[in-house]
Design brief:
This protein is α/β, with parallel strands linked by helices. The protein has a single domain, classed as 3-Layer(aba) Sandwich (Rossmann fold). 38% of the residues lie in helices and 23% in strands. It is built from ten helices and eight strands. It has an eight-stranded mixed beta sheet, with helices on both faces. Helix 6 links the parallel strand 4 and strand 5. Helix 1 packs across helix 9 and helix 2 packs parallel to helix 3. The longest helix has 21 residues. It starts with a helix and ends with a strand.
Length: 297
């Protein structure tokens, strides 16, 4: 991905900050399910990194679960961080600096940065969390290496991302339109597991489930994608707006998926993973074991 694509992604999320929470039903539900993964884990982190924190919904779950922890909310979009600051009462600028100097800093610390280059010291966090943000990185290996770097030994990395069967209906409906991509490509969970191992994580566990949302019509789906900043296609996208004839064809193609209840589906493949920043566990030939689990539908 070139710098122009990264700027396009950042602009999309900058624009979506004020509309995000009203449209992010799926993102909030997956955050709750991700939080449930922590129920059986006996950890008490002092500092948690929320990668791609958005407006701070996930950080709220983390603060509720670990009230004594400081949550570092990292996002590429300043307007998202502004909403997160408002949600968590965090102070920006010199007021935030003064609070830290006095030892009265809030338990939420917003940081604007790209996940490929975390502006944090080595081994400064006990846990890293990322809810539906990793699909936006163009270098998963570098991102995982950075997460591993900032985690302390025995630190937990827990995340949810999208798999390749996400928006499969929209992908199929747009396949024969104009030769351009209208849906982003997403990494298979087996490749995500391999990337974790290569970054130095141990005991990775991967799970997958499919979640289907329904809409009255195609414009409703596309409006929701735009409202959460997820309408930017990063590779092979069309430079201009879609023409009327192309739009009619897309709409007609999507109609093939209309359900018996009169609703149009949009399917998401949600990939959950967790791993530990400890020395690798290997078997005799040097490979590491990755565990794949299914989730009930």
């Amino acid at each position: 991905m070139d710098e122009a694509r990264r700027r396009a992604i950042r602009r999309a999320f900058e624009r979506a900050a004020t509309s995000y929470d009203r449209a992010a039903f799926l993102q909030q539900e997956i955050a709750r399910r991700l939080d449930e993964h922590l129920d059986g884990m006996k950890i008490a982190p002092a500092r948690v990194l929320d990668i791609g924190c958005g407006t701070g919904f996930g950080a709220g779950l983390l603060r509720a679960r670990y009230p004594e922890a400081t949550v570092i909310g990292l996002d590429i979009a300043e307007s998202m961080l502004r909403e997160a600051r408002h949600r968590h009462g965090a102070r920006a600028g010199w007021r935030g600096l003064l609070a830290r100097l006095r030892g009265t800093a809030e338990r939420f610390a917003p940081v604007r940065a790209d996940m490929r280059g975390l502006p944090l010291a080595r081994a400064c966090c006990d846990m890293a969390w990322s809810n539906l943000a990793l699909q936006w990185t163009d270098d998963l290996a570098a991102t995982f290496a950075e997460v591993h770097r900032v985690l302390r030994p025995e630190g937990l990395f827990l995340f949810a991302s999208f798999g390749p069967d996400t928006l499969t209906e929209l992908r199929a409906a747009s396949a024969d339109l104009d030769g351009y991509n209208h849906v982003n490509r997403f990494v298979d969970m087996h490749d995500v597991g391999d990337a974790l191992v290569h970054a130095g994580f141990a005991n990775p566990v991967m799970e997958m489930e499919r979640v289907t949302l329904t809409y009255a019509d195609l414009p409703a789906l596309l409006r929701e994608l735009k409202a959460i900043g997820a309408d930017t296609v990063v590779e092979g996208r069309r430079a201009g707006l879609m023409g009327k004839a192309t739009w009619r064809r897309l709409s007609a193609n999507y109609e093939r998926f209309r359900r018996d209840d009169g609703r149009l589906p949009a399917t998401y493949e949600v990939v959950y993973g967790h791993a530990w920043a400890v020395p690798r566990r290997t078997i005799e030939d040097g490979r590491q074991i990755i565990e794949f689990r299914g989730r009930p539908r």
